[in-house]
């Protein structure tokens, strides 16, 4: 048996994907021009799939902070915090994120993936229970593979399903740790967080929420879904990433637990990997200042949500349930999704294509993510282009039929 024989199904699917002429998983950004534009296949392309919610990757103040940090402290730390020590700025960043949430403690990680992997796999031990939403991100599923706790899945966004699972555990000893996400990354739907928190309180369960896609985007101060739901104090652990709204890379976890810092010597994804370089720490600290100082970026983002989401809905597309910065456009099957994605790219618009097995319930999607600095004209144009392709692919009824109907 060949080493890759067990991937035969995936290899077939991947071959299908490549018959369209482009491989959506090997796209080359030949040159990135701004948060919303890049050269792809030799042409200027509108980016509507990069999670760059505030457009801070090219923010002058964040770039200057990164450049100054390189001049002052070099390009990298060349080791982990436990081996090479923490730089003053790592500690300052942790303090600032903790303050942002009004929590006592914060740990930063080299990626958001590692924050989830490390914290979730370590929080729940051999006699504990880790309860996760069925549509959890890959980093949460991977944490489940590493944990010694018993893993229990509940139905996506269904507090009564969680309650049934907790009830069934009865009075078995062991902690219960419930893992949720603020905005789910594929369809952009949100956890009914208040209801989940009530269930967790009733059963004495700890709550961990991953706010990767909601930092900056949700809440009057950009603190995410936990701010909107008024449950920051009830979320024992809030995890997030620097790679989306904050425009860089890295992850964090905040908590009020007095013993939280023990994770610094127990979480392997923190202990055995190099820490964030000075340039990233500096740009993230500046990006957090921008999030606090410029709430108009959130307003602009939501104006853009209204243009794209409402525009596509009005044309008859089937969208994810939530009006928000991640817009999932349902398509009937994998090949239609890939063909549609390619037609969009040929028309100069880049979005993500998400197909089984990477999607919940085997759905095929175009996944769009909005940016505060998209212009209304860009998004109106996108709706027009998608409508044309939608008719061409038979996803939308054609114009005459619509008029007749
Ligand atoms: N959690 C969620 C919900 C995500 O969508 C992602 C990234 N797509 C991550 C965690 C991992 O974050 P990062 O890419 O910053 O490692």
TrEMBL record:
Per UniProt, which keywords does this protein have? Transferase
The answer on whether this UniProt entry bears the keyword rRNA processing reads: no
- Which stretches make up the Aminotransferase class I/classII large domain? 47-384
Cofactor annotation: pyridoxal 5'-phosphate
Please give the InterPro entries that the UniProt record associates with this protein: Aminotransferase_I/II_large, AON_synthase_class-II, PyrdxlP-dep_Trfase, PyrdxlP-dep_Trfase_major, PyrdxlP-dep_Trfase_small
GO molecular function term, any single one: transferase activity
Q: PANTHER family under this entry? A: CLASS II AMINOTRANSFERASE/8-AMINO-7-OXONONANOATE SYNTHASE, LD36009P
Cite the NCBIfam families for this sequence: SerpalmtaseBetaP
Q: What protein is this chain from?
A: 8-amino-7-oxononanoate synthase
Q: Please give the organism.
A: Reyranella soli
